[in-house]
Structures are given as C-alpha cells and as structure tokens.
Amino acid sequence: MASEMLENHVFDDIKVGQTAEITRQLTQQEIHIFAAVSGDVNPTHLDAEYAEKSRFNGIVGHSMWSGGLISTVLGTELPGPGTGYLEQDIKFRRPIKVDETITAKVTVKRKYKKDKSVIFDCVCTNEKGEVVADGIAKVLAPIRKIKILRPDTPMISVHGKYHYEDTLAKSRELDPLRVGVVHPVTPSGIEAVADAVTEDLIIPVLIGPKARILAAIKESGVEGAENWEIVNSEHSHDSAKIAVQLAVAGDIEALMKGDLHTDELLGAVVPSSAGLRTERRISHAFLLNVPTYHKPLMITDAVANITPDLAAKVDICQNAIDLWNVLFEEKNRKPKVAILSAVETVTGSMPSTIDAAALCKMSDRGQITGGDLDGPLAFDNAISLEAVKTKKIISSVAGDADILVAPNIESGNILAKQLIFLGGANAAGIMLGTRVPIILTSRADSIRTRLLSCAVAKAMADARRKGKIK
User: Fold this and answer.
1) How far is Cα 251 from Cα 237, in angstroms, rounded to an integer?
2) Confidence at residue 443, expressed as pLDDT on a 0 to 100 scale
3) Where in the chain is the domain with CATH 3.40.718.10?
4) What are the DSSP calls for 349-415, one per residue?
5) Could you give the residue range(s) of every CATH 3.10.129.10 domain in the chain?
6) Which residues are paired to 92 by β-bridges?
7) pTM for the full model?
8) What's the pLDDT tens digit per position in 259-310?
C-alpha cells in the first residue's frame, strides 16, 4: 500500500545503484482509461473479437502504459516530487496481456553535478520475471527537500458501449419514416431535422408558416433543405392542428416537435375529437443511456400525466412494455418493470404503494401483459443489486429493472433530469398511446439523442403497420 506521504530524494542524497519500484496489474479498465486519455483506440486494445484474430491472440495493453509506470516511479518514488523528465529511451520487448502484473524498477546509473541531472536504468517485468520493456531515462533531480501529503488519485469511471447502438442499427434497415415536423422555424430546428435526414431515418414534411421556415432554412445553411416538402400554416397552434389532421389522414407516419411548446402540440393531440388517440391513455417514455447502469433504462411517465390514477397507470405500464418489446424483441424475455415509490412495502398511508401492489396483481391476472412487474420498490431497490441484497428483497425485477414507472409527473421528471444532468445520461423521448408516434425533441438534445428519438419512432410505426401493437 502506498504511503500517505510523498517524500523526494534531492540530488546530493541520490546514490549510484539506488533503486525504487512499483507494481501494478493491467486490467481492462486500465486499458480503457489509457485509450480515453491518449485517444489511441487501436482495436488490438479494445475489440476482443478483432484482437483474438491478431498476432497477439487476445487483447493487449498499450505499450506506453509500461512507460507510464516508469514515469510514476520517477515522479513519486525516486527522485520523487520536483523531478523534471528530460529524456526516455525505451524498448518494448513483449506485449502485456490483461491481468498481467508488471513491476517497474529504476536504478541510478549516473549523476551529473553540473546540471543536477541523473541517468536511470529502467526495466518493467511481469510476474514470470520476463522483461516487457527496458531503457534509459534522464531526469532533472530536485534540489529542495519535499515531504507532502500524497494527493488523492482522480476518480475515473469507465463505461461500456452506447446501449442503444443496436436500436439505431436496426432502424436503418427500415424505410425512412414520413414525419411531420411541427413548426420548425429556427435554424437549430432545421439542423435537427437535417441530422435525421442524413441518417436516412425520416422524410420530413415541414408544417408551419412557409416564409419563416424558408428563412430558417436559409440561415441554417443546410443544403437541400429548401427542397423538403412544406405545408403552410398561420402560427404554432395552427401548425399543431394541421399536423394532427395530416397524421389522422395517414399523410404522415409520425410527428416531431419543432419550435413550439410541448403543451401546444399536445393540446392538438389529446382531444378525442382530434382522432389521434387510441383507447389507451397517452403517456411519455424517456429512453435513457445511463453510463453507470448496465443496460438500457426507460422511465415513464415524466411528461404527460400529472397525477395518474390506477387506470392511467395501467395504460402507462402497457405503453412502456409495448415499446420495450418492439425495441428489444430479440432478447426473448419480458421487460422487468419496477413500480416506484419511496418504500418497498405496501402501506395505507402512501397511496403509490397501494397502486403498485394493484398493478402487480393486475399483471398476474392478465390485465397488463408482456412484462414482469414488481412493486412498490424504492429507486435504489429497483436498480441496485447491492441494495436488494442488503434489504433481503426477493424479486426477479429488483436490482435489474428495465422500466421504471414513476408514481407521478414530479417524481418521474425529477428522476429523469437528475440522471441526465448529474448522471451524464442521454435521454430520448417519445409519446405513446397515439395512432402515430410523437417525437419530443429539445434544442439541448445531442445529435445522438435526436437520432435515437427518430429511430424509436421508426420502429414503433413499423410495429403498428405489422399489427404488433395496437
């Protein structure tokens, strides 16, 4: 274990033949961190399938990782703090495989009093004593004695692939979706549409005041956008109304929110007289890629239903389950649906726990289909196996949820935005329970998020055409 203090060796105290060393194991995480910092994403280090077919017969570490160990010895042990690195001549003798333990050792070879420089022999060996790298280093030794508290090592977390990469890939196999973009009257709105067009996800129909749309296209500089179809409207409310009419008539297969408020768009969608609703309650689902979670995560409802009653929650659950099954049907299992509350026990003083228990029983009786429901579950019990073990919860859902059903809009919205703004999550959003999917985008969304929203809408429209969902 490293000392809590860092203490150096000044030039006058350094002796020829003096040594220092450190030992460290090369893990896959170390390789990922080195790749992230250096930008070296050679598949020999990161792609197991590729590396297996290479001359190394498996993943190997970056050669300069061993050089970094030498630098660590020189900077923290001998000479230690205050050392200036001048030169490094290093030869890499053999590759380092994952989980090999490497010892980096430096030995003082020569000192130069004139400039206070020191030459070191450097060698890195594995646990078998085999040399993996060796060479010569030249440093400027410190001339002032230093003893300080060892700084904390920065915390770094390494995350796996983007969980929705397969979803995006599958959507590209489908024909582009004819999408009504509602009121796209700013350059950023046009650019968002262009990203989806470039990826062959949508065929846009721009619905809004024609003059404003053309001005936005010109300002955006998006080539070819002037050739997109435009349906003229008077203002944002009129844009939403016309978009719904086109969707009901079958002229467009999905709606995308442009530069208008969500409630303006939904105000045209929600009335039964508009003809766009199904027999189910309209609900919203966030599809999140949370870096610290091991798989895709869905949160519902954080946008549409303020205080849903039990009947509304049935539809919210079913809408989300249908969406998950469309996106991940290849998994050949039911999604794990966690009904959230503040506790994991049913109590009369907390209505959300009673709703959760009722939803689970309704699932048992076939009133909600296609999912594996459990609840009430507190958030930690829904996503953390460690919390589940600590509380001795027996559940096929707890600790491994695919879908989180929030008790009300406040808790769902807060949870989703915490994960986005504090947890680094990407979140695509889509409205469910309508005859066409509705893509809710934000100007703050990343390109990947906007593309995923379109890909999800594309998958849902295809599933509806094939009769997989109502």
Assistant:
1) 19
2) 65
3) 165-465
4) T-HHHHHHHHHHHHHHTTSS-SSEEEEEE-HHHHH-HHHHHHHT---SSTTS-SEEE-SSHHHHHHH
5) 5-149
6) 133
7) 0.76
8) 998 889 989 998 888 889 888 999 999 999 998 899 999 999 999 999 999 9
